Amino acid sequence: MARTVVPIGPYHPLQEEPEFFTLTVEGETVVDIDVRVGYNHRGIEKLSERKTFDQSTFVIERICGICSTSHPFAYTRAVEDVIPMEVPERAKYIRTIIAEGERIHSHLLWAGLAGHFLGYNTVYMWVWKLREEILDAMEILSGNRNNYAMFKPGGVRRDIKAEDIPPVLKKIDSIVPTLEMLKKAILDDPVLHARTKGIGIFSKEDAINFSALGPTSRASGVARDVRKDSPYGVYDQVEWDMIVTENGDVFDKVVLRVLEVFESIKIMKHCLTNLPAGEIDAKITSIPPGEGIGHIEAPRGETFHYVRSDGTNRPVRHKVRAPTFMNLPTYKATVVGETISDATIILAAIDPCYCCTERVAVRTTKGRKLFSGQDLIRLSQEKTERLRKDMGV
Amino acid sequence: MTSQGLTREGVLKDLEERFRDCIVEVFDKSPKRVFIEVKPEPLVRMANYLFKDLGARFNIASGLDTRSHIEILYHFTIEDLNLLISLRVKLDREHPAIDSLAPSFEAANWIEREMHELLGIDFNGHPDLRRLLLPDQWPEGVFPLRQDYEEWDPEAIRDRGV
Questions:
Q1: A51: closest chain B residue by CA
Q2: Are A230 and B82 within 8 A, CB to CB?
Q3: Cα–Cα dist A73/A76, whole Å
Q4: pTM of the predicted model as reported, rounded to 2 decimal places
Q5: Does B122 map to a domain?
Q6: What is the residue range of B69's domain?
Q7: In this prediction, does ipTM exceed 0.85?
Q8: A355 neighbors A17 (Cβ within 8 angstroms)
């Protein structure tokens, strides 16, 4: 059969970020794929060499709009590894709280996008509404919905006030019932199963060969999680389970991320209710010559930072490796042999990093009816019933 | 002690014995971090031993220009031991070249492409050294992560540290 090349990108109205995919297809089957990245390359490693250790924290927080804490977390740990030192207990708790809040909202964001890519926009709207609660909780804790600016080498920049904890716990608890419903819906929905089960299978051998990270490896039965393997923050003081699934298909990646949200809620609640008193900053005065490595489990997998110091107040080298760098090449192993209609969700299944920090705030309804979340669910159910009746199913 | 029977001391002793002629220096920095400087020629053999025999995960490699050498650190994690082993090689600054790890395992493919274009290191035997990050109009032979890098584009607005 004749081969056709389908170019996607680098700039496309439906792509959130510029990337260039070249899909070679025979009929509808993908036989080869090539990826070109770099359209978003900002030279941050070079930039970081010109900043002081403290300034770099802010630069690298802007690498990603979604996992904006994972980079400062790994970076501050790398700087602390140069010295080497440990941060105060309270700072560890606060860091863990922020990192887990970020994981919850990042996984929910992905689940919504996955629904969107499958043409299942109800899931998209539904999950993103849940995510709002978490973003609000993060705003209470840090003052911002994203880019929390909580981290600094030696500790955290801002304390969590005792009076802020109850409303945050309330927000977290409020999403659990809907999340349970979502979990049930995913496990039961035949359409979702048809679109994701057995699709884009990533084998265990490939996961090891590509050194895949995070949910991409855990969904293929490779139990890797920096939070368990090399505990940092207070992950070794909290009871939680590493979620591992075996099939490596898109379905397993969906289930895995939803289950991880429950674990993150567990960790976050434990930390908020057991927050110890004390200092939040070890107040580093100087950084000696040497090198340090910091790696932490971001929502998409391990984020890795390497810092070398020559004893001045600037790093001479700062290497940043985001998890997508390791996960992106894996779809050579997953997309080939699948149909072009499934390529989108397979590409999306590794959760490549998209930036979206925009928000809309409606202040006044000007007399129009304001629907609550419950109203919207009721309306949606009514419409489904109506459709069922019309279609006679 | 792990399911494979590995211990931290056992692994380090085994590496030192097995690669006695290849190791230049071992720096046991902390319980979780070991830096081993090795000669460039046996790097692939040693990396393969870590990756395939000891089941280590390849985190990433990080290259840097120390002004006297081009240095590459290959970071491997043995998760069961909570140990990060970094293999350090120092390459000649004029013509930095080393054998590629990409034929041995896929995880090394992209980072070698990145180091090739940003630091000008040649990876012998790499299957695909096309550009990864830099734009097409970027001139050949200009490596942005070298210490002597100079701005080549008079119209560029790049950070100059001011």
A1: B161
A2: yes
A3: 5
A4: 0.89
A5: no
A6: 8-96
A7: yes
A8: yes
Q: B150 — contact with chain A (CB < 8 Å)? A: no
Q: Which fold has domain A43-331?
A: Cytochrome-c3 Hydrogenase; chain B (1.10.645)
Q: Which of A212, A218, A244, A221 is nearest to A332 (CA)?
A: A212
Which has the closest alpha carbon to B107: B148, B71, B146, B60?
B60
* Domain containing residue B46: CATH number: 3.30.460.80
Would you state the structure tokens that stand for residue A201, as one six-digit string?
A: 């299978």
Half-sphere exposure of A61 (CA within 13 A, CB side): 19
The DSSP code for B50 is: I
Tell whether B80 is covered by a domain: yes
**pLDDT, greater one: A12 or B25:** B25
Is B84 touching A (CB cutoff 8 A)? yes
Which residues have CB under 8 Å from B84's CB, separation 6+? A230, A293, A295, B32, B33, B34, B59, B75, B76, B77
Per-residue pLDDT band at A384 (split at 50, 70, 90)? confident
Q: Enumerate the residues of chain A whose CB falls inside 8 A of the CB of residue B110.
A: 325-326, 328-329
pLDDT recorded at residue B154:
79
Distance of residue A393 Cα from the nearest chain B Cα, in angstroms = 49
Nearest CA in chain A to B146: A46
Does residue B126 form part of some domain?
no
Of A202, A208, A196, the C-alpha closest to A220 is: A202
pLDDT in tens for each of the 162 residues of chain B?
Answer: 455 678 999 999 999 999 999 999 999 999 999 999 999 999 999 999 999 999 999 999 999 999 999 999 999 999 999 999 999 999 999 999 999 999 999 999 999 999 999 999 999 999 999 988 888 889 999 998 999 988 888 777 665 544
Q: Is the Cβ–Cβ distance between B98 and B72 less than 8 Å? A: yes
- Rounded to whole angstroms, the Cα distance separating A104 from A112 reads 12
Domain membership flag for residue B103: no
Question: What are the tokens at B131?
Answer: 């550009």
**Which residue is closest to B108 within chain A, CA to CA?**
A210
Number of domains in chain B: 1
Hey, which bits of chain A come out as E strands? 3-8, 20-26, 29-36, 151-152, 155-156, 290-298, 301-309, 315-321
Contact between A265 and A97 (Cβ < 8 Å) = no
CA angle B108, B111, B115 (to 5 degrees): 130
Q: Is there a contact between B79 and A50 if contact means CB atoms under 8 Å apart?
A: no
Domain residue ranges of chain A, discontinuous segments joined by +: 43-331
